[in-house]
Write a structure and sequence with these properties.
Blueprint: E1 3-9, H1 16-24, E2 32-38, H2 44-54, E3 58-63, H3 73-83, E4 92-96, E5 100-101, H4 106-116, E6 120-130, E7 136-138, E8 151-155, H5 156-161, H6 171-181, E9 185-196, H7 211-218, H8 223-237, H9 241-255, H10 264-283
Parallel strand pairs: 1-2, 1-4, 2-3, 6-9
Antiparallel strand pairs: 4-8, 5-9, 6-7, 6-8
Helix pairs in contact: 7-9, 8-9
GO molecular function, one term: glycosyltransferase activity
Family: Belongs to the glycosyltransferase 2 family.
Protein name: Glycosyltransferase
């Protein structure tokens, strides 16, 4: 199968070389990799240039966006710019972070999943991060069918059906909800252990605190689903302030009539899907 990768990169000199090295050693190599150098002020561009010179499938795109590292908007803006350089001659497309080490068979395994089941539209492995004992341990949300935003792989038909990636916080949740709305399945592969070199969310600034609640409003969760999801998030993070910030962001978005990411029909489907998931966990 043919696949394209887009990598948004902002000041990634500490990690990018390891990511590109693991990409270059894949048993199924990509047709094209667009590395979007987004306003970097370190040696990111020099690392990109080295790989562009050494391998024919790498291509650099220099761009400049906001210096603020807010979840959603900055990274998806960069992704979209990279995507604009690609044609439609691919079987699946990947949004990849610049701070990962992938197992050598990662994309060969993803291609096999897509080949074996045409109903699967989105697939990925699992994130592992170093703990305090310097050991690589699983770091994943409670829903094991969720593919982390760090390494999303979509079939072309699925990607086109969901309208690409939304330019907002929550893009890596609403994509999966819309994937299911359009009749596709999501596959996660336990054996694909991806090393994540930067702990999740470490680069985000204080402005991001309210954005999760705003995203839940934009995904048309409604009050009760937002409350339940925020409470679960607060428990997982062992921080009740998360619940407060999420709900504050939700009510702020509701007051200002923040733009929704989904249509009324999609919103109805999303709420129904979420409530079914909650009932299933309660009943067992």
């Amino acid at each position: 199968m043919k696949y394209y990768i887009v990598i948004p990169a902002h000041n990634e000199e500490a990690f990018l070389e390891k990511t590109l090295s693991s990409l270059s050693e894949q048993t199924l190599l990509p047709k094209k990799v667009i590395i979007v150098n987004d306003n970097s002020t370190d040696n990111t561009e020099a690392i990109i240039d080295t790989y562009c010179e050494g391998y024919g499938f790498y291509q650099k795109l220099n761009t400049s966006s906001s210096k603020e590292h807010l979840p959603g908007s900055k990274v998806i803006n960069a992704f979209r710019k990279g995507l604009a350089l690609l044609d439609d001659d691919y079987d699946f497309i990947v949004k990849l972070d610049a701070d990962l080490i992938l197992p050598k068979n990662y994309f060969e395994s993803i291609a096999s999943v897509f080949n074996e089941n045409k109903n699967i539209g989105l697939a990925g492995g699992f994130v592992y991060e170093l703990d305090s004992n310097n050991e690589w341990v699983l770091n994943h949300p409670m829903n094991k069918k969720h593919v982390r935003g760090a390494f999303k792989a979509y079939t072309k038909t699925c990607f086109k059906s969901i309208g690409g990636l939304k330019n907002a916080m929550g893009w890596d949740t609403v994509d999966e909800l819309l994937t299911q709305y359009h009749g596709f399945e999501i596959a996660t592969l336990d054996e694909l252990k991806v090393k994540h070199l930067r702990p999740t969310g470490k680069a985000y600034n204080a402005k991001a605190k309210l954005m999760q609640g705003e995203a839940m409003y934009a995904m048309d969760y409604g009050f009760w689903l937002t409350l339940i999801a925020s409470f679960k998030m607060a428990l997982k993070q062992k921080n009740l302030k998360t619940l407060y910030h999420n709900m504050k962001g939700y009510f702020k978005a509701k007051k200002t009539q923040h733009q929704k990411m989904v249509s009324p029909e999609e919103g109805k489907f999303i709420r129904s899907l979420r409530w079914k998931g909650i009932r299933k966990k309660i009943i067992g």
